[in-house]
Amino acid sequence: MPVPPWLEPLLTTPFFSICRTHGDAARSECNMYCLDCSGDSFCFYCRSSRHKDHQVIQIRRSSYHDVVRVAEIQKVLDISGVQTYVINSARVLFLNERPQPKTGKGVSHICETCGRSLLDPFRFCSLGCKLVGIKRNGDASFSLEAKNEMAMERGEGISRRESSRDEDELREGLQQDIYPPTPPPPPSSARRRKGIPHRAPFAS
């Protein structure tokens, strides 16, 4: 499944309203979302009482736009191709596209969906733009299973190449053991004498 059923509801859910049940509490902002229920956003206290054993992610804010930490979302979604940012020492990505008046000159990378300028060579500026790109072109996916299968195929290809190289090295080693190279003759350091010396006769 290229798109999980909870993604589109997540992208259209409003966050950061005050919880009706726990409005007087300190952490009453509705900044949580349950991937199992795919309902409305809820607060910290609702999570403890209603979504204790569910998959829940926390939404954060950056310049009045909703973001999610990469460490959380990448556990349930393939986010490859989406531009990430470091905000308050945490790597995050935006849920939806952000309006941009005009793309500046000299921009090397832009979002394939909305045309927003990007910092790095990514395809999309947000999860929402990647969703539109998948529906439009079908050349991307949110599925972690497909990503893992591609990684396994690449790993198996590397393993096969390494195994073939090891077999070639082993074959060469066996050939060297069976047919050892003939060592070169040692260099001769002794000089050959031209004749046998004769001792002079004694004088009488």
TrEMBL record:
<dbReference type="InterPro" id="IPR006734">
    <property type="entry name" value="PLATZ"/>
</dbReference>
<feature type="compositionally biased region" description="Basic and acidic residues">
    <location>
        <begin position="153"/>
        <end position="164"/>
    </location>
</feature>
<protein>
    <recommendedName>
        <fullName>PLATZ transcription factor family protein</fullName>
    </recommendedName>
</protein>
<feature type="region of interest" description="Disordered">
    <location>
        <begin position="153"/>
        <end position="204"/>
    </location>
</feature>
<dbReference type="Pfam" id="PF04640">
    <property type="entry name" value="PLATZ"/>
</dbReference>
